[in-house]
Amino acid sequence: MKFSDETLLAYLEGNLDEAEARSVESAVEENPELEQRLMALDPFAPVVQAVFERLPAEDPKIDLPEPEPHTQPAVGGLRLLAVAASVAVVAASATFWATRPQPMGWAEQAAIYQSLYVPDTIAALDTSSEALAAQFAQAEEQLGRSLNREALEALPGVELKRAQVLSFKGKPLIQIVFADAQGRPFAFCVIRQGDGAPRKDVKQAVLSGLATATWAQDGYGYMLIGSSEQSDLSGQLDFLTENFAS
Description:
The protein is an alpha+beta fold. It has helices spanning 5-12, 18-30, 32-41, 45-53, 76-99, 106-115, 119-123, 129-143, 149-153, 234-243; strands at residues 158-168, 171-180, 185-192, 200-207, 210-217, 220-225.
């Protein structure tokens, strides 16, 4: 069946009755040339094409609900635009959820905080026995466990400077600060994660430009943070994992 341009325009403008509109749609499904004629007459077709060209090459696969039945034929151009807009919104939303940054954990936050430290930050700290005793008492009370100050004072290659009480999502996070041989800041952090928290083996990574090592056991998380990306943590890490028992 042949259709004049006037009939196709009437279809696009929604001026055909239901039977005539269905006849056009059936013919378009079977005749690619008729579909091209219809698209050429549709002022919204370039908009639809542009939307699809901007979609990612591999769109996330999403199951969409079945469309509600219509008692009246949809307007051709507006229908094509609505479909394209819906696909674009779904694809953009799916891409956002697939690529959005994940919330930072306590280790990432602690590394960011430690990255702000410079030698001058810790140079003038009060490291007297009395000051450290008060700091450790407060930290241990918040943490709910001993911090083995004697073991930390014997940590190889660094000098104990301070114990500080921080918090992450309502959980006490203790930052114990050291200075290495060049006066650069090191840190050992302990966070109370609670009973039932999974045990994790030592994992080394570079976070916020600093070498780090993290592990977890017996309801607590631990983190050693070096003074730079190239810091060798092996000596301190071996000592802590052997001598800092919970």
